[in-house]
Amino acid sequence: MTDPVLQGRELREAWRAVANAKLTEYRRQSWRLALLVRQGAIDKAAAVDRLWEIASAHALVRALGEDRVQAIIEEAFASADFRSRHPEVA
Questions:
Q1: What residue ranges of the chain have pLDDT lower than 50?
Q2: pLDDT tens, 64-85?
Q3: What secondary structure, in 3-state letters, does 51-77 show?
Q4: Which residue ranges make up each domain of the chain?
Q5: Distance CA 81, CA 43 (A)
Q6: I need a labelling partner for 29 at 20 to 30 A (CA). Which of 7, 14, 41, 68 fits?
């Protein structure tokens, strides 16, 4: 006979683990794309647009809310425009 409390706890833990892995990978990809923007390999607007599409497609916007997803993107790209903001610094 299964313990319903234990079963509920374990099923919730499986749900959380997958959700956390998805969020962790999303953050990792945000930082990876931001690095590529800083290196000049890809366009910032294209990277941000794609990250938003990814968040929408994988239900992160629905789960976390638009503000949280935007904050994740902004955090990763905070210094992505460093070179263009300070061209006179060498």
A1: 82, 84-90
A2: 999 999 999 999 999 755 454 4
A3: HHHHHHHCCHHHHHCHHHHHHHHHHHH
A4: 4-81
A5: 11
A6: 14
Instruction: Measure the CA–CA gap between 2 and 22, rounded to whole angstroms.
Output: 30
Other CB atoms within a 10 A radius of the CB of residue 47 amount to 22
The reply to whether the predicted model has a pTM over 0.85 is no
Q: Which long-range contacts (CB under 8 A, 24 or more apart) does 3-12 make?
A: none
CB 73 within 8 A of CB 27: no
Nearest Cα to Cα of residue 76 among 48, 41, 40: 48
13, two tokens: 């833990």
**Phi then psi dihedrals of residue 78, to 5 deg:** -55, -40
